[in-house]
Write a structure and sequence with these properties.
The structure holds two protein chains of two kinds. Chain A is mainly alpha-helical. Chain A has helices at residues 13-16, 23-43, 46-72, 80-97, 103-122, 131-150, 182-205, 207-217, 219-225, 229-256, 261-264, 267-280, 285-309, 314-335, 340-353; strands spanning 163-164, 169-170, 173-174, 258-259. Chain A has one domain (40-353): Orthogonal Bundle (ABC transporter involved in vitamin B12 uptake, BtuC), CATH 1.10.3470. The mean pLDDT of chain A is 89. By secondary structure, chain B is an alpha/beta fold. Chain B is globular. Classes of the chains: A mainly alpha, B alpha/beta.
């Protein structure tokens, strides 16, 4: 009825390959962008920023990164936490070594450094795949976190072993440090994630993305038709780590402000990001956001309902939270193994025909 | 393309034994033989997936060194597979576009921003791919995931993916296996048209003798890893060794 392609004529190839070819989708997207950039910054307070929006955006960035590698290129990685740590510590070293440098550049360079580390730990993927590769990437996870704890140079010899972010401003507004306002923090993270989600989309719809997906779907056939497997796999590792490194840098600089490697970037974080992309949808940009939203927002929501509304004891509520979230993960995977992004895709297909089930 | 004295062994098994034949420019050359005769191994040697233990391959008159398969694809050899090897998670269009990989030079920075040459290169290649889609009459499934397509169409998309590379030599491994008569007729027509219109040299493996005898210019017969006959279809059809290989020999 209201979700139609009829009457929309696309007359050029760029026009046909745009991200939202259907008008309804495009409108929805613009409305969401307007809300995110134009409405939320005026309403946001510290609680909403710190509990909901900022962690959601940062985890979405990490999920985007892992989705490039696992969802698009088919290489499983359990080193996400370790790569986030590289991003965080690289950002810290850059911020303290070059106080004049813009925080945006610091975060992007931290991403570049992580990309180089990612290539190094991606080398085993040229020889092994699947579960074996996952185990090999665990080495990155444990080695990197150990490194940042053991070598004092990384935390500038501070006595606590922690690193903490100095204040940095963008256009005169503080975005890191303890005096940052909620809206500034939110808007900064939102802009970064928005820009790089768009970049991820561009990468995945072009020749580079196709060579990744070819490797994912059938690596031998891909090589025989002319995809260079080394280039495809290592570029996926590099770009994935670039995103994850930036997520780690923002996690440290914008969100927590002070961290310690073992606590902030343990193996749990690697699994968390992996769950996000599995639940959200492998090989889908929107899926990265949906998965991050699910795993970041659901605990907050449950806590508010159980403790805030029903007045339960916090300890019981925490346990229940684990049970419910675990159950929901299983439920989502049974109902739709391809993730929640697939549910949305199916819904759109149905909407196209609605209310006539057999028309096409 | 000349294949000279190629021998291929897997451990103790000799899959190909001293095989030599030529594939001439512009012809359709069929490779036939009973199961396990080494036909697919031969194709795998030609496109560089296996490296011969002895003998050599000469391509356009030059000795071809041992190269990884993707480099050989860049030399203009494309193929389809016996068991469909499409990228199941991608649409028909994306699959055929992936076939253009040897013709595209993406620049990382520009692709990230989808700017200038990145978008232009994409559109230009899309235009070529659309010609192939028209040629194979698969316009209506352009945006369908290939995993959802019926078998016959998947075979056709796979042919499209190979054609997208504008190969000078096209290898087809049982392009008509498992098809009904009508689908076989369609596929034969596509093969003949490709040969006619693009001048592509084609080497194909096929079990349907009717099709082989009808469309090929030359037939190479293999049995137990050896070449037992080579010549025009009529000559091969009446060759006693070939008849023996197919029908068996009576024991006294």
């Amino acid at each position: 009825m209201f979700y139609r392609e009829t009457g929309e004529f696309r007359t050029s190839y760029p026009n046909d390959s745009q991200t939202f070819p259907i008008k309804f989708d495009r409108r929805l997207y613009y409305i969401m962008l307007f809300a995110a950039f134009g409405v939320i910054p005026f309403l946001i307070n510290d609680y909403w920023a710190n509990a909901v929006f900022v962690p959601f955006l940062i985890w979405a960035m990490a999920a985007l990164g892992l989705n490039l590698l696992t969802g698009y290129c088919g290489q499983i990685s359990l080193g996400t936490g370790g790569f986030m740590a590289v991003g965080a510590y690289a950002c810290y070293k850059l911020m303290t070594a070059f106080p004049e440098m813009s925080i945006i550049l610091c975060i992007m360079f931290a991403g570049v450094i992580t990309a180089l580390v990612g290539i190094l730990f991606g080398l085993p993927s040229l020889r092994i795949k699947g579960f074996y590769l996952a185990v090999a990437t665990l080495a990155a996870q444990f080695f990197l976190v150990w490194l940042f704890n053991k070598v004092p140079w990384f935390y500038n010899y501070s006595s606590s072993g922690q690193i903490s972010a100095p204040e940095r401003t963008v256009l005169g507004v503080a975005v890191t440090g303890s005096f940052t306002e909620a809206w500034a923090k939110y808007l900064f993270c939102l802009t970064m994630v928005f820009v790089f989600a768009w970049v991820a989309r561009n990468l995945t719809r072009g020749a580079i993305g196709r060579s990744w997906m070819a490797i994912r779907d059938m690596d031998i056939a891909a090589e025989i038709i002319g995809v260079n497997p080394m280039k495809a796999k290592l570029s996926a590792f590099a770009l994935s780590s670039f995103y994850i490194g930036m997520a780690g840098a923002m996690f440290f600089a914008n969100y927590l402000g002070a961290i310690e490697a073992t606590e902030a970037f343990g193996i749990n974080q690697s699994f968390l990001v992996l769950f996000m992309i599995i639940i959200g949808g492998l090989g889908s940009i929107a899926g990265s956001f949906i998965g991050a939203a699910f795993l970041v927002l659901m605990p907050v929501l449950l806590k508010n309902i159980l403790v805030g509304q029903m007045g339960w004891n916090t300890a019981i509520a925490t346990h229940l939270e684990f049970i419910i979230i675990g159950g929901l993960i299983v439920l989502v995977l049974i109902v739709e193994p391809h993730g929640m992004a697939q549910l949305w895709r199916v819904a759109k297909e149905k909407l196209r025909l609605w209310p006539f089930p057999h028309a096409s | 393309m000349e294949i000279e004295n190629v021998t291929l062994r897997f451990g103790g098994v000799t899959a190909l034994k001293d095989v030599s034949f030529d594939i001439l420019e512009g012809e359709i050359c069929a490779i036939i033989g009973p199961n396990g005769a080494g036909k697919s191994s031969m194709l795998n040697v030609i496109n560089g997936f296996y490296h011969p233990d002895e003998g050599q391959i000469r391509f356009r008159g030059e000795h071809r060194p041992t190269l990884p398969p993707y480099r050989i694809a860049h030399m203009g050899i494309a193929r389809t597979f016996q068991n469909i090897a499409l990228f199941r998670g991608m649409t028909t269009l994306d699959n055929v576009m992936t076939g253009r990989v040897t013709r595209m030079r993406p620049n990382l920075m520009k692709s990230m921003l989808w700017w200038g040459s990145a978008e232009r290169e994409e559109s230009e290649n899309r235009e070529f791919v659309e010609r192939i889609i028209d040629f194979l009459e698969i316009q209506s499934i352009r945006k369908t995931l290939v995993g959802r397509l019926p078998y016959g169409l998947q075979k056709r998309v796979e042919l499209g993916r190979a054609l997208a590379a504008e190969p000078s030599l096209l290898l087809l491994d049982e392009p008509m296996a498992g098809m009904n008569v009508e689908e076989k007729e369609d596929m034969s027509r596509f093969i003949l048209d490709v040969n006619d219109e693009f001048g592509t040299t084609i080497a194909l493996i096929e079990h349907d003798m009717g099709v082989v005898m009808d469309i090929s210019d030359r037939v190479v017969v293999m049995d137990y890893g050896r070449k037992i006959a080579d010549g025009p279809p009529d000559e091969v059809r009446n060759n006693q060794t070939v008849i023996d290989a197919y029908l068996g020999v009576q024991h006294d």
